[in-house]
Specification:
There is one protein chain. This protein has 383 residues and is α/β, with parallel strands linked by helices. It folds into two domains: 31-181, 3-Layer(aba) Sandwich (Rossmann fold); 199-382, Glycogen Phosphorylase B (Rossmann fold). The chain is 34% helix and 16% strand. It has 14 helices and 14 strands. The strands form three sheets. Strands 5-4-3-6-7-8 form a six-stranded parallel beta sheet, with helices on both faces. It has a six-stranded parallel beta sheet with strand order 11-10-9-12-13-14, with helices on both faces. It is globular and about 60 Å long. The two termini are 18 Å apart.
Length: 383
């Protein structure tokens, strides 16, 4: 069992050495006494709506539940577009889905949940839709935080995760684990995020690497992710081009990924680089997971793709802008570094830059520091 990695910070960047965060010492324990008799629990529902990163960071909680209740049925409810991420997971029995912003889908799912007869339902999201669906499940024990929307719909409401862990700042994965730990589930070892890679997806990715990237099987490459949800989280394409060139100079090829409709971001990096760069923006989420697992190192923006890379144990360097590093940094047992500029206005919601009119937090991150972080991570990974 691994110990949490040591984090040090300077005014210029945050560095996470060794295991990024996940893992604790000793046998896992709950954070509070059991709130009901677990011996009769046979069916558990976990509701976690929204994004890729949110889904990946729910996997430590799913794993904690599975090892605690190996004989129970554990279902998870996700938004349909992100549900393929959990294909092949050994920690869940069924992945249920709901369409985003679809009232008819919510009504259908509510009826389905009601018919399942769940004993326990956890709300790991916090929004109104999740609260309503947890209530609709009719589970005997419905669990959420006291500050969640429609908290009265839960019959077990927990205090803040910071209080449960006994410290001011908690990670998103810890926040979710704490809700389980408050009900008696052992979580103190803070399990790593985890995603499965199927043989079919691994083979499909290997074929594309051979045909489109001309990479022989087993040849190391860096996975580059230059896209992000907001400008405040998007490091400049010319900067990524310098990283690609640096990696090429030391014999490491680069493969860039982006989502559907984001191909122009890869094109922009390629246009600024004198080194070759192959890009994919049409991968399914399971294929993206397989590609990350096949890579030698990840370099990219704070994003769902970074969390996917962490969940398959890839050493990584993540460039942060507006996001809360304490809450969103990599969560895995892998060498990782976070590179950022210290700004008085950070973190912020990140939709726009209210302080400067332009996202200086991400713009000011120097190429030299990112390349130095890449070198440290690669060196640590060889040891």
């Amino acid at each position: 069992m691994r110990s949490p990695g040591r984090q040090t910070e300077s005014p210029a960047f945050a560095h996470v050495a060794g295991a990024a965060l996940a893992g604790g010492v000793g046998e896992p324990r709950p954070l509070a006494p059991a709130r009901w008799d677990w011996s009769g629990v046979r069916r558990v529902l976990v509701v976690r709506l929204r994004s890729i990163g949110d889904t990946v960071l729910a996997t430590p909680s799913l794993h904690a539940l599975r090892r605690f209740l190996p004989g129970a049925r554990i279902d998870v409810l996700l938004e349909d577009w992100v549900a393929p991420l959990l294909e092949g997971s050994e920690d869940v029995d069924r992945v249920l889905t709901v369409r985003r912003k679809s009232q008819s889908s919510r009504l259908r799912v509510a009826r389905q949940l009601r018919a399942e007869g769940y004993d326990v339902a956890y709300n790991l999201h916090g929004g109104s839709t999740a609260a309503l669906l947890v209530r609709a499940s009719g589970a005997r024990h419905r669990v959420g935080y006291a500050d969640y929307a429609y908290a009265a719909l839960h019959n077990h409401t927990a205090p803040p995760s910071a209080k449960l862990w006994g410290r001011e700042k908690t990670h998103s994965a810890e926040q979710q684990l704490a809700l389980l730990g408050w009900t008696g589930v052992p979580v103190t070892d803070r399990p790593a995020a985890r995603l499965a890679v199927t043989d079919a997806d691994a083979s499909a990715v290997e074929r594309r690497l051979a045909e489109e990237a001309k990479l022989a099987k087993g040849r190391p490459f860096a996975l580059i992710h230059p896209a992000a949800a907001f400008d405040t989280k998007t490091w400049a394409a010319p900067n990524f081009a310098r990283v690609v060139e640096h990696l090429a100079a030391r014999g490491v090829a680069s493969v860039a990924v982006a989502g559907p409709g984001e191909g122009r971001v890869i094109d922009e990096v390629r246009a600024h680089s004198v080194s070759p760069l192959v890009g994919f923006n049409d991968l399914s989420l399971p294929e993206l997971t397989a590609l990350a697992a096949r890579s030698h190192v990840f370099v990219g923006n704070d994003s769902g793709v970074a969390h996917i890379a962490a969940a398959v144990g890839v050493p990584q360097v993540v460039v942060f802008g507006s996001s809360n590093v304490a809450h969103w940094r990599p969560w895995a047992n892998a060498n990782a570094e976070v590179v950022r500029e210290e700004m008085h206005c950070a973190p912020c919601p990140g939709y726009t830059c209210a302080e400067f009119g332009a996202p200086e937090c991400i713009r000011r991150v120097p190429v030299e520091r990112v390349i130095a972080a890449v070198e440290r991570v690669l060196e640590s990974s060889r040891q």
